[in-house]
Amino acid sequence: IKVWNYNEVNLTARGAKRIEISGSASGEPGTFKTSLGAHEIDRARSGSRGPSADPRFPQTLEASGRGVRFIRFDIASNHAGVVFPASDASPDNAFVGLSEVRFFSESGLREGRPLPGVRVSVVSSELRGNFDRRAQYLVDGSGLEGSGWDLQGMPFYGRGVAYSQRFSAAGDAASGADGLRGRCRVHLPAWRGSVASVRVNGEAAGHIAFPPYELDITDAMRPGENEIEVTVIGTLRNTLGPHHAGAMFGKAWPHMFQVGPEKGPPPGDAYSTEGYGLFEPMELLISGD
Question: What pLDDT, on the 0 to 100 scale, is given for residue 31?
Answer without folding.
Answer: 95
